[in-house]
Amino acid sequence: MKCHGCGVQLQSTDPNKIGYIPESAMLERSEPLCQRCYRIKHYSDNITPEVIHYSLSDLKTISAECDVTFVVVDLLDIAGTWNKEIKEAVKGELFIILNKFDLIPKHIYAQQIVEWFANEYGIKPKQIQPVSSVNNFGIKSLTEQINQVKKCCFTGATNAGKSTLLNKVISKEGLSESTASPFSGTTLGRVKRTLNSGTTIIDTPGIEIKERMMQFIKPDERHLIFKTDRLTRKTYKPDPGKTIFFGGLCRIDILQTARDGYQPIFQIFSGHNIVYHLSNQKKADDLHKRQFGKLLKPPFTDMSFEDIDWQQHHLTINEGMDLAISGLGWINVKRGPLEINLIIPKGLGFHQRKALFIKER
Ligand SMILES: Nc1nc2c(ncn2[C@@H]2O[C@H](COP(=O)(O)OP(=O)(O)OP(=O)(O)O)[C@@H](O)[C@H]2O)c(=O)[nH]1
Ligand SMILES: [Mg+2]
Questions:
Q1: Are residues 66 and 101 in the same domain?
Q2: Which residue of 164, 183, 224, 270 sits with most ligand 1 atoms within 8 Å of its CB, as the best mutation to test the pocket?
Q3: How many domains does the chain have?
Q4: In the chain, where do the E strands start and end?
Q5: Whose CA is nearest to atom 10 of ligand 1?
Q6: Is the pLDDT of residue 35 over 80?
Q7: Ligand 2 centre from 204 Cα, in Å?
Q8: What per-residue confidence (pLDDT) applies to 184?
Q9: Residue 176: pLDDT over 50
Q10: Do both 103 and 81 map to the same domain?
Q11: Same domain, 60 and 205
Q12: Which residue in 114, 152, 200, 260 is deepest, having the highest Cβ count within 10 Å?
């Protein structure tokens, strides 16, 4: 029998292993919950389990069984929740859900975001829907669409909001909820629900994106990167010779003035737990080592600076472009070009893209 909240195989033999449920509870309940789901639901507790992630091959398998595969993308972390490997792994019909739209500034239209995503990643606009499980934006039309399908699944990177969204879609059906939490790796197996329309909808474990920032910090502090109720934005107009710390795991050394001697202007965007700090390059090495995990977060707890395999990338970012750091946030260059050295852990993903927020009302 499977846990009704996270989809893991239930067992009553080892309380320290995933799927544990006391035998009496297993017998009593028609929709049993493992001890971990019970504690997340009732005490907002986190028991970091042996995390089970979905692989691209799992994604291939489930998408081949479904009429539509909904890939849930986190709008605050597009770089860490969407890539061409996921796109290529989906068999059959693909539909992109751009989640957490409530965190996007109010002056940005949903249609702008749809067109931007369509152009940037080669997806048809009609296959993209921005939604928010917090303010219900887009939920009604998504639910109507789902009700017309026989079998579909919610897939995507861990913590993108798949389970929360499934709970929104089933909220009027009187069905029991899938377990959702701020911690990554909450869903551990398939969680299946059948709607009144006859549609089968399946929640799945998150896909682990290896180059995402969360892979470079301790499992028990990963949720702090994502956990946010707002998008933080800060503008910089730095002189060459300045360093901006985008948390402790992303250092930006400003190398050159932009055109005509003007300083470049750029904005940093991220969740509110990421600390930004401006410093002089001469002092930056020392400050980085001393304040790593203290003033400069993430990491949020003790972590050895020396244990990190740091890598420096020399980049030029043109005006109107973003530099997106997988699992952290992004930098938008308003006046450029911006020439920088980006110093990050080896393997952490980053890429340049057209600005997400280019047109303002
Ligand atoms: N602001 C905001 N937060 C959201 C939204 N949807 C989900 N979240 C938050 O995102 C976090 C992760 O939610 P889950 O639904 O558990 O994510 P998941 O994709 O199922 O995660 P895994 O099962 O670990 O792969 C939780 O803290 C949710 O409250 C949304 O629309 N807006
Ligand atoms: Mg989940």
A1: yes
A2: 164
A3: 3
A4: 68-74, 93-99, 128-130, 151-155, 191-194, 200-203, 231-236, 242-246, 251-256, 265-271, 276-280, 310-317, 321-325, 329-335, 338-345, 350-354
A5: 161
A6: yes
A7: 7
A8: 87
A9: yes
A10: yes
A11: yes
A12: 152
Identify whether residues 249 and 285 lie together within a single domain.
Answer: yes
The answer on 159 and 91 residing in a single domain is: yes
pLDDT digits (tens, 9 = 90+) for 299-312: 998 889 999 999 99
Q: Cα separation of 333 and 330, whole Å?
A: 10
In a domain, 183, yes or no: yes
Nearest residue by C-alpha to atom 26 in ligand 1:
182
Domain co-membership, 118 together with 267 = no
**Cα distance from N-terminal residue to C-terminal residue, the chain:** 53
Residues 166 and 193 in one domain: yes
What is the model's pTM? Answer: 0.96
pLDDT-derived band of residue 48, with 50, 70 and 90 as boundaries? low
Using a CB cutoff of 5 Å, list residues around ligand 2, an ion.
162-163, 186-187
Domain that holds residue 279: 216-354
Query: Directed axis angle between helix 139-147 and helix 162-169, to 10°?
Result: 70
Does 325 lie in the same domain as 240? Answer: yes
In a domain, residue 196? The reply is yes
Closest CA to 298 of 341, 278, 327: 327
Q: Are 153 and 62 in contact (CB under 8 A)?
A: yes
CA of 182 to the centre of ligand 2 (A): 10
In angstroms, rounded to a whole number, what is the distance separating the alpha carbons of residues 51 and 205?
A: 9
The pLDDT score that the predictor gives to residue 258 is 62
Residue 358 has pLDDT above 90, yes or no: no
Contact 20, 37 (CB under 8 A): no
Q: Is 360 inside a domain boundary?
A: no
pLDDT more than 70, % of the chain: 97
Q: How far is the CA of 237 from the centre of ligand 1 (A)?
A: 34
Residue 164 CA, ligand 1 centroid: distance in Å: 6
Q: What is the DSSP string of 119-184?
A: HHHT--GGGEEE--TTT-TTHHHHHHHHHT-SEEEEE-BTTSSHHHHHHHHTTTTTPPPPP--SSS
